[in-house]
Amino acid sequence: MGGNYGGGFLKSFLNCGKISALCGLLRGNYGVRDAFCCLEKHMEPVKKILDRIIWDRDFSADATFVLMYEDRRMGLVSIGLEMIERLDPLSFTARDQEDRTFTVPLHRIRRVYRNGELIWKRG
């Protein structure tokens, strides 16, 4: 039941998709502890990533970060982290090229890139 993160649940979660892995959990094929450890690792909240970028100097030193978020009118929009002026628990406030401020809820962030490499993706 516990601790075998390289076992069946993780393989099912990564190879067959979240739905089949969760179905296996519900059927009792996997332990709850395995499920939560795996889900936490692969569904890390974007706020944790943003906090790491802000507070972990080794991680963010000499790095360029880009966020992609879903805008209701424009679709997916890219924004450099340097444009963000404020980070709140549920949103961020940024300034665009025309010097206007706007607020985006964190649940709209779809991807985070570090030096062009994808480091976080929603679902």
Kindly summarize this structure in a few lines:
The protein is α+β, with helices and mostly antiparallel strands and 123 residues long. It contains 5 helices and 7 strands.
Commentary on this structure:
This protein has 123 residues and is of the alpha+beta class. It contains five helices and seven strands; from the N terminus they run H-H-H-H-H-E-E-E-E-E-E-E. The chain has helices at residues 8-15, 18-27, 32-42, 46-55, 57-60, and strands at residues 65-71, 75-80, 84-87, 91-95, 101-105, 109-114, 117-121. A hairpin with a 3-residue loop joins strand 1 and strand 2 (75-80). The longest helix has 11 residues, at 32-42. The chain starts with 7 loop residues before the first helix and ends with a strand.
| Fraction of residues in helix | 25-40%
Question: Which structural class fits the helix and strand makeup?
Answer: alpha+beta
Number of helices: 5
N-C termini distance: 26 Å
Shape: globular
Radius of gyration: 18 Å
Q: State the order of secondary-structure elements, H for helix, E for strand.
A: HHHHHEEEEEEE
Main beta sheet:
4 strands, antiparallel
